[in-house]
Amino acid sequence: MQVPFFTFRDFPTGLQDQIESALVKESRRNQFILGTAVTKFEHSFSEYLGGTEVVGVGNGYDALSISLRALGVGPGDEVVVPSNGYIATINAVQQVGATPVFAEPEAQTFNITAATVLPVISARTKAILPIHLYGQPCQMKELLTLCTDKGLELVEDFAQAHGARYKGQTVGTFGKINATSFYPTKNLGALGDGGAVTTFDPQLANWVRQYHNYGQSEKYQYAMAGINSRLDSVQAEVLSVKLQHLNSLNQERQRLAQVYLQTLRGVGDLLLPVIPEPDMEHVYHLFVIRTHFRDALQQYLKEQGISTLVHYPVPPHLQPAYQNLGHQKGSFPVAEELAKTSLSLPLFPGMTEQEQQFVIEQINAFFEKV
Ligand SMILES: *Cc1c(COP(=O)(O)O)cnc(C)c1O
């Protein structure tokens, strides 16, 4: 049996038809840039998030760098980021001229916490930029308290966690200004690039609205030298359709995750995802297990026709791109350990019971042999 890591299927029933009719509608609308489709999506996503302002932008990376710029983060400032994060987050910090400073995640949750951030705060720290990695919310209460105590800004990267909740509040609404991506494989994914900035601060929202569209304040009036990073209208129309299914798609991910959690507990040396507090809702963008037999397990599953991925095999501080920061092997042992032991299993809405049972059987078979 072949089990893909991820695939788009017609799930829930009729979604594909709804997307196709949205595309036809948009192709006949004759608006193309920043029209009705974008405004409509911004409003519905705002409603979904609980009333925050939403500005659609070109992609998640732009959403991050624009958010940092909106706060005035720039050269001489330090921004705390996870040492195990996705590279885009760190690139965005570098792009605005600030210095990324790594905080270790907690191995159990893959996320940074107030306890791991505190030791790396300096007089130059301007902001903390946590990622709700793999769909699991960070422990926001302590992070927010830390920011208040130290006078720091909080910017969330919620690209992997659309719809995840911490104590009933949706991620993407905790920080002063926050960034997300609608990259196709994300929980809320477009059919191409897309992203958004969210904030409760109308002044910041206004700044972003001008900045992302060449700095335009009124037609042919430019308040600042802005950039071009706009959410595409066609993608916005697709996102409006998919947003209506986001909760049910997330529930499907959660149901599949529960099956893995119940059946893989105690198998071999596997460490399964841990939710550290009650009242936290993980949306399982990825289902990441840990094992010291990672490479052998991945190879074995591949031979059985099961695709898995490693998120991420090389931590940012060991990437050639970040040698300028002066870190080396051993600088961030938790991130390095996670990079060596993590494996993402197939999990996607529409995955069949047969497929999932096959994955579970083969993992069991592997550990019976080692
Ligand atoms: C996908 C992702 C991004 C970047 O999104 P793009 O739209 O590809 O630029 C940023 N941060 C995290 C955590 C992501 O998963």
From TrEMBL:
Keyword Nucleotide-binding appears in the UniProt entry: no
Keyword list, A-Z: Aminotransferase, Pyridoxal phosphate, Transferase
One Pfam family linked to the record: DegT_DnrJ_EryC1
Gene3D superfamilies: Aspartate Aminotransferase, domain 1, Type I PLP-dependent aspartate aminotransferase-like (Major domain)
Single GO MF annotation: transaminase activity
Family assignment from sequence similarity: Belongs to the DegT/DnrJ/EryC1 family.
Protein name: DegT/DnrJ/EryC1/StrS family aminotransferase
